[in-house]
Amino acid sequence: MLNTPMPIEAHALRAIQGVVFDCDGVLFNTRDLNTHYYNFILTELGLAPMTAEQKEYSFMHTVDAALAALIPPELMPRAQAVQAQMVYADFLDQMRPEPGIYELLATLKDCGLYVAVNTNRKTSMEMVLERFAMQGIFDPVITAAKVERPKPDPQGLQMILAAWNLAQDQVVFIGDSDVDQQTTTRAGVPFWAYQNPDLTAQLHVDSFDDLRQWFSVAHGPVSALRDF
Questions:
Q1: Phi/psi class of residue 112: alpha, beta or left (left: φ > 0; alpha: ψ in -120 to 50)?
Q2: CA 20 to 30 Å from 150, out of 22, 81, 160, 224?
Q3: Of 142, 127, 110, 165, which Cα lies nearest the Cα of 21?
Q4: Across the strands, what pairs with 116?
């Protein structure tokens, strides 16, 4: 018997052949890192730390968009100079893998599912995956540096669908923000919201441990479904 009842039909889970993850807020808890990163730049420029709204905006958008929203145009050259001297690896210890993510990824692989990343990170994603022993798990890894138009544009998801040769209804995207929700709407891909009940989604996921159990049962022997 599962600890948490399955909120979606088993046959619907079996129809899923690929799972796409956002990075920040889904694979990793990075809010502290994100805040520290941008506040470091602001402090170097003699500016006030981010407001709550600015923190939320910078968490969901690309670094270029975040800096443009935070930094006055006349200070942008100085901000870019500060950023160029920063070593992103120094900030990685403030990242935390979400509970249960490694076990979920192992289960998805065991079930024969594709897994990918679609993130508005630009150049740090490969470093992050290596630091947390996730390199080689996701294919493809789509970042803002690999598309002409980052999220909420659907280009990244469309590239993943093409790489996997799958239809929209065979894939789900797990995200945690309005930007992620807009991306899936534009791509025609089902959206699963991670720990954000305010979003409109086909499924709300509160725990990766629960999601792992649901996939294990749905893709396992038919006899396992008798527990439902």
A1: left
A2: 81
A3: 142
A4: 20
Give the model confidence (pLDDT) of 97-139 as tens digits: 999 999 999 999 999 999 999 999 888 899 999 999 999 999 9
Question: In the chain, what are the domain boundaries?
Answer: 10-29+95-227, 31-94
Distance CA 154, CA 130 (A): 26
For 98-107, letters b (16+ CB in 10 Å) and e give bebbbebbeb
Dihedral sign, Cα of residue 141, residue 145, residue 149, residue 150? positive
CATH superfamily label, 10-29+95-227: HAD superfamily/HAD-like (3.40.50.1000)
The angle formed by the CA atoms of residues 145, 151 and 155, to the nearest 5 degrees, is: 75
